[in-house]
Design brief:
homodimer; mainly alpha; 6 helices; DNA-binding; three-stranded antiparallel β-sheet; 3 strands
Chain lengths: 121, 121
DNA sequence: TGTTTATATGAATAATTGTTCATATGTTTA
DNA sequence: TAAACATATGAACAATTATTCATATAAACA
């Protein structure tokens, strides 16, 4: 009763629960890995960025055209492209005055289409 | 030159770009669907919620035990479980005094493991 | 029935974030 | 070289959000 009694007033007398708690807690992935994972999904968690990714599925495109497709300011798009690039979801190359953006990850479309399946239910 | 000249000073003379813009813009999914998709990913975009989902992969569990596994307050966990439930990612059932939470979607583990693949690269 | 236990929830606060505006950087063209 | 164009970026502001604290709800038990 006194051994393994970590928490004071909640689920207290249940030894089975305590076993389960340690079992699950010990198997939790690294803090940093979970943080990175959450950061990745955070990037998908914005309509503008989702639209940009959708756009780049179709074709690589310069910043100005992406802004035109989405009907948003060049600055707003540029800021979001930076976020996407930091997450290694897009890459860019220069073509004269323009910077051409394209998708930089094979998992993206799978992740998104899987999310869509869930949403559509 | 005057026809199809939607934007004033950017990518202006390039008719090919204008074609591309309309092609891509017309194929964009419904605003509401994209919004829902972003909302779904937003739910994954928090370390606490990711940890809760990871925990529930292992086993269904009462609120108090989840709080214990994560070393967080019961209130914080309860708030987050509500978010997860609204997103239909978890469900609950009553068992006496306790409420037992479990995963409520087959896509979740696929989505998360795919995200992990990307992060690990 | 009254007390204890487990969970939920509203309000408040601190932190994060998306867009706008102004401007800087870097390339092309006249 | 100067002007025009495409993109990037810092600061500011508004909006959203995760946690805490206090308290409400609801079941179990004495």
């Amino acid at each position: 009763m006194h051994i393994d009694d970590k928490h004071a007033d909640c689920c207290d007398e249940n030894v089975v629960h305590d076993d389960l708690i340690h079992l699950v807690a010990d198997d939790m992935p690294e803090e940093e890995e979970l943080y990175d994972l959450a950061e990745l999904f955070k990037v998908f968690g914005d309509t503008t960025r989702i639209k940009i990714l959708y756009t780049l599925f179709k074709s690589e495109m310069c910043v100005c055209d992406i802004a035109e497709v989405l009907g948003m300011s060049q600055s707003a798009i540029s800021h979001q492209l930076r976020v996407l690039k930091q997450a290694k979801l897009v890459r860019n190359k220069r073509d004269g005055k323009q910077i051409i953006y394209s998708l930089d990850d094979v998992h993206i479309s799978k992740i998104i289409s899987m999310g869509l399946e869930h949403v559509k239910e």
